[in-house]
Q: What sequence folds into this?
């Protein structure tokens, strides 16, 4: 995702964001508010300007296995342990590749070129 504007923001609830490539975001790459809880796993963050990954408006952010390049940074605001992960049902579980594989996984993602 290359964006010079605001990125998506979660309001309320829980999101597990995995295997995404974030390049050159505006205000933030991942945001949340109103008590949202976000687990970021095996994503790659490459800033061009603003190096802060998160926008914190009253939510919890937890990172595991993310790759931060070119000085990208975030402030972890929560610990999400096994008790939280047990809330996934069988139909909600998914395999997460390592952050090293994200470039290959996303190489053909995005708008199609005609």
A:
């Amino acid at each position: 995702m290359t964006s010079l504007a605001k990125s998506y923001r979660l309001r309320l609830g829980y999101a597990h964001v995995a295997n995404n490539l974030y390049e050159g975001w505006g205000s933030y790459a991942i945001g949340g508010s109103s008590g949202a809880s976000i687990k970021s796993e095996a994503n790659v963050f490459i800033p061009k300007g603003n190096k802060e990954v998160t926008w914190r408006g009253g939510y919890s952010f937890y990172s595991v296995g993310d790759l931060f390049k070119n000085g990208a940074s975030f402030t972890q605001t929560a610990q999400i342990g096994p008790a939280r992960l047990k809330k996934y049902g069988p139909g909600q579980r998914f395999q997460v590749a390592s952050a090293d594989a994200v470039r290959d996984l996303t190489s053909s993602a995005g708008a199609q070129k005609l």
